[in-house]
Amino acid sequence: MLGYLILLFTLVPALELVLLIKVGSYIGLGATIAIVIFTGITGAYLAKLQGLLTLYRIQNDINRGVMPTDKVLDGVIILCSGLLLLTPGFITDGLGFVGLIPFTRNLLKAWFKYKIEGMVNRGQVITIR
């Protein structure tokens, strides 16, 4: 696991830097910086809207006595997407926007549930009932 994290925190920034330099050489430094700033601001705004909407849905479920498990997972994905969008770069922005779109977020949610269920079935996660 540590190896994957080291790879993630070295490879992704290197790829982002290469991509920023390539795009900058085609469209110019100012336009590249403007795109990065625009996607950061737009992403933060969209993440805030989606997050507040999800928080409202969680509160609704709690008030009705329903466990909001799906909505909490939505909130985690939205939070991670917002963090990715605040990170400068095109790869992280693309991944961040994927997490903010409800359709693709539902696909991510289904994948996470599948992975977590597999971990529980293999005994890697212990649940308390």
Give average pLDDT, whole number: 90
**How much helix, percentage-wise, in residues?**
over 70%
How much β-strand is present in the residues? under 5%
Shape: flat
| First-last Cα distance | 28 Å
Radius of gyration: 18 Å
> Would you list the SSEs in sequence order as H and E?
HHHHH
Number of domains: 1
Query: Which spans have pLDDT < 50 for at least 5 consecutive residues?
Result: none
The largest pleated sheet is described as:
none
Q: How many beta-strand elements?
A: 0
Structural class: mainly alpha
Tally of DSSP helical segments: 5
SSE map:
Elements: H1 2-27, H2 29-64, H3 69-86, H4 90-100, H5 102-121
Describe the structure.
- The protein has one domain (2-121).
- It is built from five helices and no strands.
- It has helices spanning 2-27, 29-64, 69-86, 90-100, 102-121.
- By secondary structure, the protein is an all-alpha fold.
- The protein is 86% helix and 0% strand.
- The mean pLDDT is 90.
Short description:
With 129 residues, the chain is mainly alpha-helical.
What distinguishing features does this structure have?
129 residues; 86% helix; mainly alpha
